[in-house]
Amino acid sequence: MSDPLAVISLHQDTPELAHTYEQLGVIQFNHGKLLLEPLALKPGERVLDVGAGTGRLAEFAARLVGPTGHVVGVDPLDSRIAIARLRQSTNLVFDTGRAEDLSRFGEGEFDVVYFNSVLHWIADKRTVLQEARRVLRPSGRIGLTIQDPTAPHESRILLRRAITEAGLDAERLSAHGVYAATDAELRALFDHTGFVGYQSELRTLVETHGNVDELLGWSESSAFGNFLDGFSYAEGKRIRAAFTGLVEAHRTPEGLRLARYLRYAFARKPE
C-alpha cells in the first residue's frame, strides 16, 4: 500500500498552482459529486470535507445540507484555502488543517466525513481513519475516493512510456508516486479502525481535456508541484515532448479523452 520511496512534498505548492487547480478542478469536482451521491447528505447535517482544496465540492455539499446544516472544509495548503474562503457562507467555512490531526473538532461532531482524491497522498492512513471515526457521531458515514495500484490512470501509463521514449528510467517516477490502496488493503484499514459496513467499487472515469497543456496543468496542480519532480528541467522538456506525442493519439472531436480509475469506498461508525 505505501511505497517507502514515495515523497510527496506539500511545500512545493504555489499560489499559481492553486489558481490553475481552481480553473481546471471541475474534473475532480465531478468525481466528488459521484462520491456524495451514496452518502446521501440530508438537510441539517454536519459535514467535514477533508482535503477540500479550493472548496468547490464543499460548496456543493453546503447546498445539499441547506441553511440548517453546516459544512467545514480543511486543507493543509494555505494558497488553496485562500481561494476556498471566497466561497464561505453562513453554513460553509474553511480552515487550514491536516487529515492526520482533526483535534480542533470534538468527538461525534459530524454526520458525514469524506475525502475526495485525498487519501492516496497520505502515508499514515490508519491515523487519518481513526481521526475520522472520532469526529463522526455514532452511525455517521464516511466516504472516499482513492487510486488503486492495480488500475493506474491512463495518463500515468502514457507518462511512463514518455519517460522511456525520452531515454530515461521510468522507475525514477516511482520515487514521487502516490500511496494508493487496493480493495483488500482498504477493507483491512476500515476494519482495524472500527468502521462497519465497508463497501467499495472501482470506477472507470473518462476525462476530456482541451489540449496537452491543460492536461499537464491539471497533473501539476493536482500533485501540488510534485509532477515530474526529481527530473531536471532539460529532462522534463524531453518527457513533455514525448508525452505530447503519445497523448495526441487520444484526441477526439471533443478533446483528449483519457480514462482515470478511482476506487470509491464507504463505511459507517457503529451505533
From TrEMBL:
Organism: Bradyrhizobium ontarionense
Gene Ontology MF: a single term: methyltransferase activity
The entry's keywords: Methyltransferase, S-adenosyl-L-methionine, Transferase
InterPro entries attached to this UniProt entry: Methyltranfer_dom (IPR025714), SAM-dependent_MTases_sf (IPR029063)
Name assigned to this protein: Methyltransferase domain-containing protein
Domain Methyltransferase: 42-143
GO biological process, alphabetically ordered: methylation
Gene3D superfamilies: Vaccinia Virus protein VP39
PANTHER family cross-referenced by the UniProt entry: METHYLTRANSFERASE (PTHR43464), UBIQUINONE BIOSYNTHESIS O-METHYLTRANSFERASE, MITOCHONDRIAL (PTHR43464:SF19)
